[in-house]
Amino acid sequence: MRAIDLVAVEWREFVAFLRTRALVLVSILLLTGLYGIGLAVPQRVRLAPSAYAAWRASRPRLVRALEAAGLTDVFRSPIVYFATGLFFASLLAVIWERIPRIVRRTRLEHGIPLEPAALARRKGTRRIPVAEEEEAVRRAAGLLEASGYRIYEPRPGALRAVRFRWAPLGFLAFHGAFGLLLAGAITIDLTRYSAWATIGEGEAFDAASGPFRNPPKPPKTGAAHPELAFQVLDVRPERESGMQKRLGADLLFAGEATPRHVEVNQPAVLGSTSVLITGAGPAPLFACGAPGGASSGVWVKMKLDRDGVTHFALPECGLRVAVRPAEQPQRLGKNGQGVMLQATGAALGPEALADGVEVLILRAGGVERRGVLVPGGEMATDDVGGRLAMPEVRLYATFEIVDERGGALLWVGFALGVLGLVFRLVLFRREVVAVASGGAVLLAFAAEGAGLAGESSLLARLELFVASPEEEG
Question: What whole-number distance in Å separates Cα of residue 429 and Cα of residue 271?
Fold first, then answer.
């Protein structure tokens, strides 16, 4: 038994240590500092590989020092996990210790003592001389009940009036919200599936097979991918004065008869899966013809990166081709990115190819041919009748597909935290006690939160009404 008692004592001391203000403050400051570093220092996982490489090349010493300290991947570092665990362990210890006290505070029989001797010694107690003690207490009960207070009378001549008796639970609601937020974040991390797809008008996408721009990131638990398939019917980028104004697309999802419209800030949501459009560009059809009758055609999604060069092949005609817009739009040169930022989606329509495309044709043996090809036009690929044409231009769009669970926990946690703050700061517990004592009524007041500042007029009326009811009228 001594060993068990020793363990129990050590455990109680450990829990008491977790509740200390110093430890709570240290855990909060540590988390704040780490997350501040994560916002100030570019994180490798959030940058495109090319952007991170460019930053590393431009500031090699700085980046190497940050990498050595683990500051380029702060959010997945062991110290963040330790600080988070310490914070929630401390939070749980504080909540666990306060639960009995908080529950008692919700009971009407708990509060300022109703014994006259103890009440008379209490600081702030007011003594109101009256002719009829019990009648004066009854008058106080009527006025307080009419003002929204719940009345508790254990005996004649003594009452406790409480308003917002459940307000102490706001402490549990506010601090418990952090637990829900943590549960939601863990659930999202375990179940999140994300993929990027570049799909042209008339093409289809299936989460089981793609096409994907990059390999999708499967969830850590559950199904490998959501049950999702859709066809892109129409892509509509809108620009005004050379600037992107709106970007939308119409998608027809498998099992649905009516297309859905998506925009940059308006994803299509199917259960736990959302589909968001992030960029658009031209996808011309390149067709070739050879003297021997061989022909080939391919829809080419034009790249919108720094140089705007797109490579593709037409094997039936023995061609390798590189193309880029003949007149680079101002948007293409930068694509909304810098060394420290990932690329943001550009939204270009057929107007990007209004001046045609520059074409570099490579044939077997290293023979090159250059030219400019306009929509609806064609150019020679050799000196014996081979032709390359661009008969049609469609559009493609880039989509982000995300499937995750746990978002509802985040919203519930947020709402519970706000409710807890309202209980603690606005609807806080107020208490009034009236006890008959030797030709007088003893009045005492108590309140949490902002105190009794908002109840001053009621308390003044109560004192007058207890002393002389005629003055109240």
Answer: 41
Q: Are 440 and 157 in contact (CB under 8 A)?
A: no
Q: Which two tokens stand for residue 408?
A: 């509802």
Q: Half-sphere exposure (CA, 13 Å, Cβ side) for 119?
A: 25
- How many of the other CB atoms lie within 10 Å of CB of 129? 12
Average pLDDT over residues 262-276: 92
Sheet holding 310-314: strands in order across?
Answer: 310-314, 319-325, 357-362, 368-373
Query: For the chain, what is the mean pLDDT?
Result: 85
Q: What is the pLDDT of residues 218-251, one digit of tens each?
A: 999 989 999 999 999 999 888 776 667 788 999 9
Beta bridge partners of 260: 251
Question: In DSSP terms, which residues pair with 163 in a beta bridge?
Answer: 430
Threshold 0.90, pTM exceeds: no
Six token digits for residue 283: 């996808």
Q: How far apart are CA 186 and CA 180, in angstroms?
A: 10
Helix-strand-coil split of the chain, %, nearest 5: 40, 30, 30
Least Cα distance to 281 among 389, 380, 396 occurs for 396
**Residues linked to residue 403 through DSSP beta bridges, in sequence order:** 193, 273
Strand runs (DSSP E) across 37-178, as ranges?
Answer: 126-129, 150-155, 158-163
